[in-house]
Amino acid sequence: MAIDKVWRDDDINTCVACKICQSFAPRVFKVFDKMIVMPGVDYDKYENEIREAVESCPTGIIKIEHK
Asked: What share of the chain is helix, strand, coil (3-state, %, to 5)?
């Protein structure tokens, strides 16, 4: 199932800037003080990497929405 939206849900927890998401999908996620989702990314190209980042996030704040 294709990914339509990726975001950081700050209502759940706080990003700890561990950079795990960036290590899985560096074209999708950048981590400075907190993780940001890069604008304009074609999520279809990085679907597997995004799913790995979601599953590996220690705080569980990365959320995805499917088309």
From this structure: 30, 25, 45
